[in-house]
From TrEMBL, chain B:
Lineage of the species this protein comes from: Bacteria, Pseudomonadati, Pseudomonadota, Alphaproteobacteria, Hyphomicrobiales
Tagged with keyword 4Fe-4S: no
UniProt cross-references to PANTHER family, sorted A to Z: ATPASE AAA-TYPE CORE DOMAIN-CONTAINING PROTEIN, OLIGOPEPTIDE TRANSPORT ATP-BINDING PROTEIN APPD
Similarity comment: Belongs to the ABC transporter superfamily.
The ABC transporter domain, residue ranges: 12-259, 284-527
Native source organism of the sequence: Propylenella binzhouense
Protein name, entry field: ABC transporter ATP-binding protein
Main localization of the protein described in the UniProt heading: membrane
GO MF terms, alphabetically ordered: ATP binding; ATP hydrolysis activity
PROSITE patterns cross-referenced by the UniProt entry: ABC_TRANSPORTER_1, ABC_TRANSPORTER_2
Key words of the record: ATP-binding, Cell inner membrane, Cell membrane, Membrane, Nucleotide-binding, Translocase, Transport
SMART domains: AAA (SM00382)
Membrane topology: Peripheral membrane protein
Pfam families the UniProt entry points to: ABC_tran, oligo_HPY
GO CC list: plasma membrane
Automatic annotation (TrEMBL), chain C:
Highest classification ranks of the organism: Bacteria, Pseudomonadati, Pseudomonadota, Alphaproteobacteria, Hyphomicrobiales
Keyword DNA-binding attributed: no
GO terms under biological process: transmembrane transport
Species of the source: Propylenella binzhouense
GO CC terms in record: plasma membrane
Segments crossing the lipid bilayer: 12-32, 105-125, 137-162, 182-201, 236-262, 282-308
Keyword annotations of the record: Cell membrane, Membrane, Transmembrane, Transmembrane helix, Transport
Compartments (UniProt record): Cell membrane
Protein name: ABC transporter permease
Family according to the record: Belongs to the binding-protein-dependent transport system permease family.
Start and end residues of each ABC transmembrane type-1 domain: 95-301
Automatic annotation (TrEMBL), chain D:
GO cellular component, one term: plasma membrane
Subcellular location: Cell membrane
Record flagged with keyword DNA damage: no
Organism annotation: Propylenella binzhouense
Protein name stated in the entry: ABC transporter permease
UniProt family annotation: Belongs to the binding-protein-dependent transport system permease family.
Membrane topology value: Multi-pass membrane protein
Entry keywords, A to Z: Cell membrane, Membrane, Peptide transport, Protein transport, Transmembrane, Transmembrane helix, Transport
Main localization of the protein described in the UniProt heading: membrane
Segments crossing the lipid bilayer: 68-91, 103-123, 129-147, 185-208, 236-260
Length: 496, 546, 315, 268
């Protein structure tokens, strides 16, 4: 239900919440408005910048700069801004500021990450200084999800140019020092609309690109919290009684097919693969056992638009796989399996799949170039089978659309797949306000996915934050939002 | 000269030296005894392997841990054996000094000359740095080093061999030693320089009253400098006596043999038929050669050389190092490119204007100074000879390449057929040079360039190789350019002598005329510098200024 | 004197070589498949082909290759490496901070490696234990790849014994911790250098020891110690210098494995990640720094050679 | 007899690389997730199993084959091209010499890592790619050795003798110079095999080695390192194999040099 937001929670008692020292999984360079630069940058963005709405700890959309919001219908959204909003430098934020930012993000030449959501933008009206009305040319039930995306913060005019630094925002913390390549120091911003509920005096980010170094830093007490705990380190963290491992099922890994050429142009062969992969082995080999096997499409918990049946589409059955292959008339199949040597879980997943495929008589030869060559091959359709990872930035089933539309139109979908049928069902679902009715419509799309297998979800990996038990009030948001939503939790944390 | 009352400086009794080679003990010197009196010069003569240098080094304990030295070494009443290295360190360079054969390698290349001299002085005296430097300058002047001030601040490689030997001598006399050991100090030097160094040593000896132990293989030098002589062979004494006695009346056959092998400057030559054919094999017409210098400037190695070699004639090319004599040979052999003039071989212009043929003439072959270096170490003797024949056959199809032919040629130079399958390193120096000669002959050349073919060999071997070469030359009748620094050698083999100096021909003519009536002052100086194996003659020459 | 002309000439050749390397790498990087925008964006967020095109234009990747090459050379001439795609920051700044880490590693490792090498090399010709150490242990050390040695050190000294931190870099503001974290990487890097230098020093000394001037020195009553220092070691150092330069030149490239093992934010790991997303400005900048370092080391070695061996200086 | 110890060890290693995979009763690629992380000395898996439950001994044996094949092929390639370049440069002199040797210098000043990264990125990790990369890395070394040796040998008198006796260019280069530069070249080759194993396994460690799942020792060390705290043997075992192999081949260099020396050869 696209409901009205209410003012959030009781105010946390003012007091010394300490400074949170955060070991961040990537080196964040300059913030630039619009384009996405990965999970670490999301977390930084969420401290400095703020959009109209945001996610809460349950993944629900709640008001942010907008005091309230209303979906007039799935193509018509009205936001009412809070009083006295301003950026860190004191410059005021009104409806014109919001309009300029959204229009900038709707310009494809800026490379904005949420461009796809705003590509259907029809108009933005600002009847008064506090009201923003966004009109879309097509219904989009997930529009608010996009507005809560870490890349959808409202930015001052100076940041609205490609490549311009974007360090001044409306978020809970402002930049105090940028120690390029080493870390960032943020302090609490008193311009923040909800500053009374922020307990932390500041956040210090230190970059630890290497996973075990990051864990070591936490174990050694150098940092209070780290993101993206390596799967092989889960036990080490758990063994330390002073530490909390906060793991949730997060993004998922899946398999893509090149449906432009034999044998994967045949849905039967794709189904056979769907039955052939031993997901438990993938989880064991690639994620050290820390993940959930997927036998259907991945669902974001707490989103009422999924039907549990969507998670149960194919069972593991080599016999069935062999039978399907026989039915499809393929025998002694030799295919290439594209993966990347840059990430060991990508390679290990492919290795595990290779053994499963061999079991059903398919000889898969690994193609494991570095990341850039991998993406080029993937986007260019230079593969038979490919391993891929997904972290949808919206929670509703609409995400399935991106993973179904084939390349080259979408970099997520199987190369050459025509997803018009699935898209039609999903779009129809998007236009329906009632969750139950929408579920039936989405289910139709999922049934097509079951039979056609445009992409094959394999496993949902555990996504973990880890922190000292002196850190309170933080929670890893479950599901896809672990990547895009958890950053909003830092302002609620405090260090005792 | 020899007063009976003179104090004995060094007395060696029953000196034996063994070397540890792998696990076996090799005896190098056996029960050698000799004395050196004050102001006396004792020369130890012998061929390589006779143990003469080892004897010299043993006196100062310089042989290293593999040598075992026994016997008695008495220096001014102090017995040096067994070595007390603490004591020796005080003795060395102080009371007993030594100079070596190769002054260039005997000095550390990375320190300036003056520095090294100063170091030696300070090592045995209490002088301050400044005083030591002053003393060093004094010494350099004393050994008559030209421009001592400049040389003081130069590195060894910036000085010539003669100059370095003067520095070495300055070092040796720095602490006024009682005994100076001179281990072949002039062997690496040109004759004119050798004469100067010997003069200097004699002068310093009379001034400072030291004794000299002189190690050499050259009987000319012995005759020039020694009061007494000790002849060694295979680590044992052959005979000893005063210089005059030994040269006039040698007691032992070996001594006689050695003396007869020494090529002496034979001014009565002419018994060698001057069978100068009329047709010219090789002609140089104002040939010039420039070598590229390191800094881009050229070094003029040959300048306007005019030279003709006729069929069957042996022409000796004589000069000191750097005179360009070897370059002439290399031009004739086609190894060096000329940049002026013309080279004509067997009627074909090989270099210069009108040259259209290859620089290499099939009619020229060569015998090299260093026989070892001239043989491919990875090829067996037979293969080396066969290869040369095969290459030569490309322009001389009539050449035979059969093993029989090769063995016949080998027999002709006195090599047994058993050497056919040997590698060069398994042959002696003389054998290797015979292989070189065999190779040169085998291709039936019209001209052989022999570049100091015997200078690396011992005198006795030198003589047999030279005799063989002369015999073969007469039999085969090839023309020959015989390059040598040794005028005595030239007088023995050539019919014509060409004297070179700094890239030019200063004088040429029939051997007898050059030796008896040289017209060029340089030729004369060269002739005067050659020490003759005759102490009486040498002494006489010394007293009358050249 | 001539040394200056010589140095100037070497410097000019060095510059030409740096430019050659830049051009080769520029062309090679472009020939290799993979697009920076796709590589960077594909991890997160849905990117449509339109966005990719827009960003390519922003980065100037839509220009034809020759134009970009010229532009790159123009920028390089002004010592500007451009802006990193990945970090939206000047590449020079990123490389600068990483270079410090690598340089620290290289300089410390070279210093300890060379010093230990010369010491053990000299020791080995004088005593039996030293001889055994260098001739038996040396080859073994040389046979252990850095990543094996490093991993083993982490395992033994950090995880089992807990003496030293397993890796990571501490800021220079905490010097004790900073140095503690450098101990293992520097040990890993300097061991093979020490082994190599010890071997070369040993051979060199053995050769020099047989030279005539050493005999001269003894013959003139210099003590064994004085002879060793003045006439053996001093002369033996020339080849040691050459090999040291080679080792030093190879070191900056070799740090990458050690950076990987010990999780150090050095230039090598920067280069690896830059290549994997085709961050061209960073790649070019890092290659520039590494090749210039290599060439500079060689020039310095040549000039140093002139000081050690006067004969070389006059050439 | 001690002189033959190393050749014997090296041959033993080669033998192991050839027949080892036949002797080990396991498929190096066969996964068995249930039996993962079997410890050292398990009855069925002598050296244990890795994170996929693959037999470590079988992987070591298969890896030996790969390491040896790549190292030897790369060395042969590098030797061929390096010697060709070095000898051509030294023999021809003039501008050819300058171009070739400066080219070698430029190659040396390209960071080896970037060379490997780019080639692997372009061609993908595989055995031929690895051989190519390693060969590229080692060509300059051979070129320099061959160049220096040729410069020295071409001025030796036996070469002059060959010129005087009218030897054709080809037989001077192949018959006179080549055999005489072979001793250092062979020593370099043996050292290069050792280095190739070292660098090759290093590339494997960085994931730039051969195409997975084929085992490489470096890759095994890298994988083992991830489980270092819980299963250290996964890293130590392949590490020991890498080290001992490199040790054998680098020491073999001296032996080879000695054997090539005619002074060591008996006359027939």
């Amino acid at each position: 239900m696209l409901s009205l937001g209410a003012r959030v929670g009781p105010a946390i008692a003012q007091g010394a919440g300490g400074t949170l020292v955060f070991g961040l999984s990537a080196n964040v360079g300059n913030l630039v408005y619009g384009p996405s630069r990965g999970a670490a940058q999301f977390i930084v963005n969420q401290q400095i910048h703020r959009g109209l709405v945001k996610f809460d700890e349950n993944g629900t959309i709640v008001p942010a700069l907008a005091e309230s919001f209303e979906a007039v219908d799935p193509s018509n959204y009205r936001f009412t801004l809070r009083d006295g909003l301003s950026f860190h430098d004191g410059s005021p934020i009104d409806s014109a500021t919001v309009k300029a930012s959204l229009e900038y993000l709707a310009d494809k030449s800026t490379g904005a990450a949420i461009y796809s959501a705003l590509s259907t933008l029809a108009s933005i009206e600002t009847p008064d200084a506090k009201t923003v009305v966004v009109k879309l040319s097509k219904p989009n039930a997930s529009f608010l999800d996009y507005m809560a995306d870490p890349n959808a913060g409202i930015a001052p005019a100076a940041a609205l140019a490609p490549g311009a630094a974007n360090w001044i925002g409306a978020g809970p913390f402002k930049l105090q020092a940028n120690d390029s390549g080493v870390g960032l120091t943020l302090v609490k911003a008193d311009t923040y609309y909800d500053k009374d509920s922020v307990a932390l005096e500041g956040v210090r980010f230190i970059f630890y690109p290497d996973s075990s170094a990051r864990t070591n830093a936490l174990l050694a007490g150098d940092v209070d919290m780290i993101d993206f705990v390596g799967w092989e380190d889960f036990e080490r963290v758990e063994a330390d009684s002073n530490l909390v491992l906060d793991a949730v099922p997060g993004p998922f890994v899946y398999t893509m097919f090149n449906v432009e050429k034999a044998p994967f142009d045949n849905p039967k062969v794709r189904q056979a693969i769907a039955h052939a992969i031993n997901r438990d082995n993938v989880v064991a080999a690639a994620f050290y056992g820390h993940g959930e096997p997927l036998y259907g499409v991945p669902m974001s918990p707490g989103n009422g638009r999924f039907d549990p049946k969507m998670g149960d589409l194919w069972e593991y059955s080599p016999e069935k796989a062999r039978a399907l292959l026989k039915e499809a008339g393929v025998d002694g199949l030799k295919v290439s399996l594209l993966t990347s040597s840059t990430y060991s879980f990508f390679r290990d997943m492919a290795l595990s799949m290779q053994a499963d495929l061999k079991e059903v008589g398919i000889e898969a030869e690994l193609d494991a170039p570095d990341w850039a060559t991998y993406t080029a091959s993937k986007n260019g359709g230079k593969y038979d089978l490919a391993v891929a990872g997904g972290a949808p930035s919206v929670t509703g089933p609409v995400y399935l659309q991106a993973y179904s539309i084939g390349g080259p139109a979408s970099s997520f979908g199987s190369y050459g797949y025509d997803a018009s049928e699935i898209v039609a069902h999903i779009q129809a679902g998007e236009a329906i306000t009632d969750d139950a009715a929408a579920r039936t419509e989405y289910m139709k799309a999922v049934e097509v996915i079951r039979d056609e297998v445009p992409f094959l979800p394999v496993a949902q990996r555990s996504q973990a934050f880890a922190y000292k038990n002196t850190v309170k009030g933080f929670k890893n948001v479950s599901g896809f939002l672990s990547i895009t939503g958890t950053g909003y939790m830092i302002e609620k944390a405090k260090v005792e | 000269m020899s007063d009976a009352a003179r104090e004995t400086v060094l007395s060696v009794r029953d000196l034996s030296i063994d070397f540890l080679a792998g696990r076996t003990r090799k005896s190098i010197v056996r029960t050698l005894s000799f004395d050196i009196a004050q102001r006396e010069t004792l020369a130890i003569v012998g061929e390589s392997g006779s143990g003469k240098s080892v004897t010299a080094l043993s006196l100062l304990g310089l042989l290293g841990p593999r040598a075992t030295v026994s016997g008695e070494i008495d220096f001014l009443g102090r017995n040096l054996l067994p070595y007390d290295f603490h004591h020796l360190t005080k003795l060395r360079g102080n009371e007993v000094s030594i100079i070596f054969q190769e002054p260039m390698s005997a000095l550390n290349p990375v320190y300036k000359v003056g520095q090294q001299l100063t170091d030696v002085i300070r090592n045995h005296t209490q002088l301050s740095v400044d005083q030591a430097r002053e003393h060093a300058m004094e010494l350099l002047r004393k050994v008559r080093l030209p421009t001592p001030k400049t040389k003081f601040a130069q590195y060894p490689f910036e000085l010539s061999g003669g100059q370095l030997q003067r520095v070495m001598i300055a070092m040796a006399i720095a602490c006024r030693p009682r005994l100076l050991i001179a281990d072949e100090p002039t062997t690496a030097l040109d004759v004119t320089v050798q004469a100067q160094i010997l003069d200097l040593l004699r002068e310093l000896q009379s001034e400072m009253g030291m004794s000299i132990l002189f190690i050499t293989h050259d009987f000319g030098v012995v005759a020039d400098i020694a009061d007494r002589v000790l002849v060694m062979r295979n680590g044992e004494k052959v005979e000893s006596g005063t210089a005059v006695d030994l040269f006039t009346d040698p007691k032992e056959d070996y001594t006689r043999e050695l003396l007869s092998a020494v090529p002496s400057l034979d001014r009565r030559v002419g018994n060698r038929a001057v069978q100068t054919g009329t047709d010219t094999v090789l002609q140089f017409r104002s040939v010039g050669v420039t070598f590229a210098g390191r800094r881009g400037d050229g070094i003029r190695a040959l300048d306007g050389i005019d030279l003709s070699i006729h069929r069957g004639e042996v022409v000796a090319l004589v000069g000191e190092s750097g005179s360009g004599k070897s370059t002439v040979g290399n031009v004739a052999a086609g190894l060096v490119r000329i940049d002026g003039g013309q080279v004509v071989l067997d009627g074909t212009v090989r270099q210069g204007n009108g040259a259209d043929a290859s620089r290499h003439s099939p009619g020229v072959s060569m015998v090299f100074q260093d026989a070892n270096a001239s043989l491919n170490p990875r090829m067996r003797i037979g293969a080396t000879l066969r290869a040369a024949l095969k290459w030569a056959r490309r322009s001389k199809p009539e050449l035979e390449t059969s093993d029989e032919y090769i063995k016949r040629i080998m027999a002709e130079v006195g090599l047994g057929a058993d050497l056919f399958n040997r590698f060069p390193h398994e042959l002696s120096g003389g054998q290797k040079q015979r292989v070189g000669i065999a190779r040169a002959l085998s291709v039936k050349p019209s001209l052989v360039v022999a570049d100091e073919p015997t200078s690396a060999l011992d005198v006795s071997v030198q003589k047999t190789v030279l005799d063989l070469f002369g015999k073969l030359q007469r039999e085969h009748g090839f023309a020959c350019i015989f390059i040598t620094h040794d005028l005595s050698l030239a007088s023995n083999i050539s019919s014509r002598v060409v004297v070179m100096y700094r890239g030019r021909i200063v004088e040429q003519g029939p051997t007898r005329r050059i030796l008896t009536a040289p017209s060029d002052p340089y030729t004369r100086a060269l002739l005067d510098s050659i020490p003759q194996p005759d102490p009486v003659l040498q002494r006489a020459r010394r007293t009358q200024p050249a | 004197m001539e040394l200056t002309t010589y140095s100037a000439k070497r410097l000019a050749i060095g510059l030409v070589m740096v430019v050659c390397v830049q051009v080769i790498i520029f062309l090679a990087v472009q020939v290799v498949p993979g697009d920076p925008v796709e590589a960077m964006m594909s991890e997160t967020g849905n990117i449509s082909p339109e966005i990719v095109a827009a960003l390519r234009e922003q980065f100037g990747l839509d220009q034809p290759l020759p134009v970009r090459l010229l532009e790159h050379m123009r920028e390089l001439f002004m010592l500007d490496f451009g802006t990193s795609f990945q970090y939206s920051q000047p590449a020079a700044a990123i490389i600068g901070s990483r270079l410090l880490v690598s340089l620290e590693l290289v300089v410390l490792s070279a210093f300890f490696g060379i010093a230990a090498g010369i010491f053990f090399g000299s020791w080995s010709v004088q005593t039996r234990i030293g001889n055994w150490l260098v001739s038996a242990l040396g080859p073994i050390i040389l046979s252990v790849p850095g990543y094996v040695a490093g991993s083993f050190f982490v395992l033994a000294l950090s995880l089992w014994l807990g003496w030293l931190p397993a890796g990571g870099m501490a800021p220079i503001s905490d010097p004790v911790e900073h140095l503690r974290r450098l101990v293992l990487p520097v040990l890993t890097l300097s061991l093979p250098i020490a082994a190599t230098i010890a071997k070369v020093t040993r051979y060199s000394i053995l050769e020099v020891r047989n030279q005539d001037w050493v005999r001269t020195s003894r013959a003139y009553g210099f003590s064994a110690r004085r002879t060793f220092r003045r006439d053996i070691l001093r002369n033996a150092l020339t080849p040691v210098l050459t090999v040291s330069a080679l080792e030093l030149g190879g070191l900056i490239g070799a740090t990458v494995l050690v950076e990987r093992v010990f999780n150090l934010p050095g230039l090598g790991s920067l280069l690896v990640s830059a290549v994997s997303v085709r961050d061209y400005p960073l790649i070019q900048g890092a290659v520039f720094v590494i090749s210039a370092f290599y060439i500079a080391i060689n020039i310095a070695a040549d000039i140093g050679y002139g000081f050690l061996d006067p004969r070389a200086a006059r050439r | 007899m001690r002189r033959y110890l190393l050749p014997v060890l090296a041959s033993a290693f080669v033998l192991f690389a050839i027949v080892g995979p036949l002797l080990v009763p396991h498929d190096p690629l066969a996964q068995n997730i249930v039996k993962r992380f079997a410890p050292l000395g398990s009855p069925e898996h002598l050296l244990g199993t890795d994170n996929f439950g693959r037999d470590v001994l079988a992987r070591i044996a298969a890896g030996a084959q790969v390491e040896l094949f790549t190292a030897v092929s790369a060395t042969l390639l590098a030797m061929t091209f390096g010697v060709l370049i070095g000898m051509t440069a030294a023999y021809s002199r003039g501008p050819t010499e300058g171009v070739l040797m400066r080219g070698v210098d430029v190659m040396l000043s390209i960071p080896p890592l970037i060379l490997a990264l780019l080639v692997v990125a372009a061609l993908g990790p595989s055995v031929p790619t690895l051989i190519g990369v390693l060969a590229l890395l080692f060509i300059p070394g051979f070129a320099r050795v061959a160049y220096g040796q040729t410069l020295e040998v071409r001025n030796r008198q036996f070469v002059e003798a060959a010129i005087i006796f009218g030897a054709p260019r080809r037989s001077i280069i192949l018959g006179q110079i080549l055999p005489n530069i072979m001793a250092p070249v062979l020593a370099q080759a043996s050292l290069t095999i050792a280095s190739a194993i070292l660098v090759g396994s290093g590339l494997g460690y960085l994931g730039l080695g051969i195409r997975p799942p084929a085992p490489s020792w470096g890759g095994m060390v890298a994988d083992g390192q991830r489980y270092m705290s819980s299963h250290p043997m996964l890293m130590i075992v392949p590490g020991i194999f890498v080290v001992s192999t490199i040790l054998i081949f680098s020491a073999l260099g001296d032996t080879l040099r000695a054997l090539w020396d005619p002074r060591e050869q008996r006359s027939r």
